[in-house]
Design goal:
Blueprint lengths: L14 H22 L4 H22 L2 H4 L5 H24 L5 H30 L15
């Protein structure tokens, strides 16, 4: 019996896709609460920038552009992005929660902390992928395998 080819699971239906979309939704929610509460501009700018970057990665993976543009090692860039986002969102969220401010600012900070949890989960998923399947989508065929 010939070995069956594994079908590619679309990004939207993968665990990584669900975590990224949850991260996007939580970041948009946090930014919305910061806008409604008229929080300091850096809170809004940082969350807005993170929304843009997360949206870029989602589009990149949905259109499978990471396989076309293989000059950049996307999983490593994704891990670095997750770490930087986690650091920035921890700072913004803690600063939003420290002073006694409006309810919406506090909600923005709480959702920011949830974004941090998603960032850590996203980074761990990518690290696991690199550790257990280092070649990933860039895997080269062995010489003895037929196309």
């Amino acid at each position: 019996m010939p070995a069956q080819k594994l079908k590619h699971r679309p990004f939207c239906f993968s665990v990584k896709g669900h975590v990224k979309m949850l991260r996007l939704a939580l970041t948009v929610t946090s930014m919305t609460f910061f806008i409604i509460s008229q929080a300091p501009e850096p809170y809004i700018v940082i969350t807005g920038f993170e929304v843009t970057v997360i949206f870029f990665f989602i589009i990149l993976y949905m259109l499978r552009l990471d396989r076309l543009m293989n000059c950049i090692f996307w999983p490593l860039l994704d891990i670095i992005n997750s770490l930087v986002t986690a650091i920035f969102m921890i700072i913004v969220s803690v600063l939003a929660l420290i002073p006694e401010t409006t309810t919406f600012t506090v909600l923005g900070g709480v959702f920011g902390l949830l974004v941090v949890v998603c960032c850590i989960a996203d980074g761990v998923l990518m690290c696991r992928k690199l550790l257990f399947n280092p070649s990933g989508p860039y895997q080269k065929k062995a010489v003895h395998e037929k196309i």
